[in-house]
Specification:
Layout: E1 8-14, H1 18-29, E2 36-43, H2 49-59, E3 63-68, H3 73-83, E4 88-91, E5 97-98, H4 102-113, E6 117-125, E7 131-134, E8 145-148, H5 152-161, E9 171-174, H6 194-205, E10 208-220, H7 234-250, H8 256-277, H9 284-297, H10 310-320, H11 324-338
Parallel strand pairs: 1-2, 1-4, 2-3, 6-10
Antiparallel strand pairs: 4-9, 5-10, 6-7, 6-9, 8-10
Helix pairs in contact: 1-2, 5-8, 6-7, 7-8, 8-10
């Protein structure tokens, strides 16, 4: 590593989070470990974030500030990655924060294990910084868990079949396994899945993955966030991202557990989206067009090759027949009277 290259690059994409950006930047600047840079990407903010970012960049020589037109979270992160000079790359979202010992803990683990990917844990906080939940580790409460060689398959199985390992902001990745020059322009402004999209290549290339139980990240829960809103385009973004994940799955074509894990999650989530989306449309014509559009983007489900999932099978095929009155009524009743 060259002398002018820090050990860590902390990438912070910023867009209209004036209320929280100072808290975020203060938490990163308060790190007990010293050898790092902060790459702030101001993604066309219009709420005064630009002034805050400019102020902080003048106060600390650790900060590299980039301003660009609004391109969305995925492309703001890509700008940060291409600018970063650190040996390891860490992500912090601008409405979140981190513990002061985050980088020191990660450095110690990297030195101890020589891992090229470290996964850490999080604490959920509310909009006023109150703790909502101390999240449990995905694999073990007792200590570090290392995946390398054939053991890596267990990690991949969990990644492709659950939401537990999606977030990019609990991953510290060696620069050499990050797809720095990859072109993500075809994805546009994703409504979901940008974390998964960027996680796939680093997981695929990682030789040694270490998971630690330490809650180093403070994730702010926003009840009005995009991920909680119902939108007809959401399913198209889900399908686009799952195709990327399928590429990882296909590299383990002989592993039955990984194959089943991927398909079970895909079928369950797709069926859920199809069912829920029926509430967005006013008539059968609109719904039939939507269902036909979705069908052209779907990854074909080979029902005979996956474990039988009766509820998902029934839901998928009810939606497939495009019987709008039935689907709409069932979805409304389920989400109004049963799920909640």
């Amino acid at each position: 590593m060259k002398k002018n290259e820090p050990f860590f690059s902390v990438i912070i994409p910023v867009y209209n989070v004036r209320k929280y950006i100072k808290r975020c930047l203060d938490s990163v600047l308060a790190q007990t470990y010293a050898d790092y840079e902060i790459v702030i990407v101001n993604d066309g903010s219009t709420d005064g974030c630009s002034d805050v970012c400019n102020q902080y960049s003048r106060l600390s020589d650790k900060i590299v500030l980039i301003s660009q037109k609004n391109m969305g979270l995925l492309h703001a992160r890509r700008t940060g990655i291409k600018t970063a000079k650190g040996k390891y790359i860490v992500h912090v979202d601008s409405d979140d924060a981190c513990r002061p010992n985050m980088l020191q803990t990660l450095y110690n683990i990297i030195e101890q294990t020589k891992s090229d990917l470290v996964i850490y844990n999080k604490t959920l906080i509310d909009l006023d910084d109150n703790v909502v939940e101390e999240c449990r580790p995905v694999f073990s409460d007792d200590g570090i868990v290392i995946f390398e060689g054939t053991e890596k398959k267990k990690f991949v199985q969990t990644f492709v079949g659950t939401m537990l390992l999606n977030s990019i902001w609990v991953k510290c990745a060696a620069r050499e396994i990050v797809d720095i020059e990859a072109d993500y322009s075809d994805y546009g402004k994703l409504m979901m899945g940008e974390d998964i999209l960027q996680s796939v290549p680093i997981i695929k290339l990682a030789k040694k993955i270490t998971c630690i139980p330490d809650r180093l990240y403070l994730y702010r829960v926003n009840p009005n966030g995009m991920s909680r809103k119902l939108d007809e385009n959401y399913i198209f973004h889900f399908l686009s991202v799952r195709r990327c994940v399928l590429g990882l799955v296909e590299s383990y074509s002989n592993d039955v557990a990984i194959q089943e894990s991927f398909w079970k999650y895909y079928v369950h989530t797709l069926s859920s989206y199809l069912f829920k989306s029926a509430m967005l449309f006013k008539n059968s014509r609109q719904y039939k067009k939507y269902r036909a559009d979705v069908k052209t983007k779907e990854i074909e489900i080979k029902w005979r090759k996956i474990p039988f999932m009766p509820l998902e099978y029934l839901t998928y095929h009810i939606c497939a027949v495009k019987c709008f009155p039935v689907v709409s009524l069932l979805a409304y009743c389920y989400y109004k009277y049963i799920k909640d």
